[in-house]
C-alpha cells in the first residue's frame, strides 16, 4: 500500500522540533510578568488596597470562587469579618460590609446603588435570546420602577389574602400525605414534601392551577433546572464577565440543559394562562396572579407588556419556590429542636386558631410571627451578598471610597449574626421579637437589619406570598399533628450555594 503524504510528514512529536522552535523559558517569564501585573492591578485598583482583607483575596478571585464552590462561603466570610471588621475585601472586585448604618445607604428607597452584575446571570430571555426585563436583574432604575408598579397590586397582601382559596386544595393534598405518614407511623422526609408543597402553591397562586408535584414529584424536572441555575449564579456570579461565554450562549445552554423542556413548558403555561385571561371577562372567583396582571394591562397597556407578564409569572416559580421551602424547613427544624419554643407556639396556635387557618387570624399571633422572623434571621434562604454597584464616580461606604463597577453588599448571614443588633445571635430565641415596654428602639433596629427579604428599593416582591404560606402552613401543622424530629435531627444539614438549601429534615407526625 502506498504511503500517504500525511504519514510521511515528520511529526513534531518525533522530531522534538516544538521544544527547539518555541522559546518556552522566555514565554514562561512573559507569562509570569503579565500575571504579576494582573495581580498588582487587581490589588491597587483605584485605591481598593486600603479596604481590609486577606492579601490573596485582593489579588485574585480564585480564593473567593473556591470558598463559594465549597458551599460554605458564609463561614469563611464570618471569619473574615471577625478578623478584619465591618468591611472586608472578599475578592479584587467584591466587598462585603456588615453594618447597620450601611443598610439604608446601599438598599434604601432613594439609594444611588444599582444591582450588581451578579444578577444579570439570572435574567430571562425569550426564544430569540432577547432579554425579558425583570425587577430582579435590571440595572435600569426607570425600568425597575415601572415593572414594580405594573405588578404591585398582584403582590400586595390584600390580593394575596384573596388568593388563599387557590392554595387550599394544595394544602388538603399535603395533609392527606401527612395523615398517611401519621397513620403508618413512618418517618417523613419533610424537606422534600415541603419543597413539592411550595412548588404546587406558587403555581396555584401564579396560574390558578398547580402541577401536582406533591403526588407526582419533579415530573417537569424543574428542580434540576433550578439547582443548576442557582449553583451557576453562585459560582460564576463571582466572575460575571464569563456569562456571555457560558449560559448566555444558547449553544452552551442547550448543551448543559440537554433536552430538558421544563422551561419551555413553564413558558407555554405562562403564555396560555395569559391568553386565556385576555379572552375571558374578569372572573368572579379569586383571581390568580397572571389574571391580575392581565387586568392591569387591559386597563392601561403602558403599565405592563405581555413579555413582562410572562417574566413576572416565571420569576415567581424560580424566585419563590426554593426560598420559601428553605424558610419553612428552617422554621420547623428550629422549633422542633427547641422544645420550650415548640410548646409555647403549640399553645398559642391551638388556643386561638382552628382549621382551616386564615391568614387574617393567624397573623395576629405574636409568637407565631416571632418564630418565623427568628428562623429567617438564623437561616436566611439567601446566604450570599445582596450585591450592588455604586453609581458613576463611586461612593464612600464605611469610610472607604468604592469605585464604580465594584460589587459591594451585605450578606444576610453576616448581619443577622451581629451581636450588637441581635444579642446572643447563635441562640434561637423567638422571644427577642416580642414587643415589650422597654425594647421599642431595639426592635426597630432588629427589623431594619432583618434583611432575609432584602430591604428598600429591591425588597423581595414575593415577601407577602411567602409570609402567608409560612404562617398558614405552620399553624395548620401544629393544629393537626404533634411533630417530632426523627433521629434527633441528626441528618439535617445544608449547603450554601447562594440559596441555603437543606436536606435531611426527617419528621414523625402523630395525629392529635
Ligand atoms: C422566604 C422566601 C423568600 C426569600 C427569603 C426571598 C428573598 C429575596 C431577597 C433577599 C431579595 C432581594 C435581592 C436583593 O436585594 O438583591 C428578593 C427579591 C425578589 N424576590 Fe424574593 N424571596 C422569597 C420569596 C419570593 C417569592 C415567593 C417571590 C415571588 C413569588 C419572590 C420574588 C422576588 C422578586 C421578583 C425579587 C426582585 C425584587 C426587586 O428587585 O425589586 N421572592 N427576594
TrEMBL record:
Regions crossing the membrane: 22-41, 222-241
Molecular function per GO: heme binding; iron ion binding; monooxygenase activity; oxidoreductase activity, acting on paired donors, with incorporation or reduction of molecular oxygen
CDD domains the UniProt entry points to: CYP57A1-like (cd11060)
Cofactor: heme
Binding annotation for heme: 460
A Pfam cross-reference name: p450
Cross-referenced InterPro entries: Cyt_P450, Cyt_P450_E_grp-IV, Cyt_P450_sf, Cytochrome_P450_monoxygenase
Taxonomy, superkingdom: Eukaryota
Gene3D superfamilies xref list: Cytochrome P450 (1.10.630.10)
UniProt entry keywords in alphabetical sequence: Heme, Iron, Membrane, Metal-binding, Monooxygenase, Oxidoreductase, Transmembrane, Transmembrane helix
Family, similarity comment: Belongs to the cytochrome P450 family.
Name the record gives this protein: Cytochrome P450
Organism from which the protein derives: Clonostachys byssicola
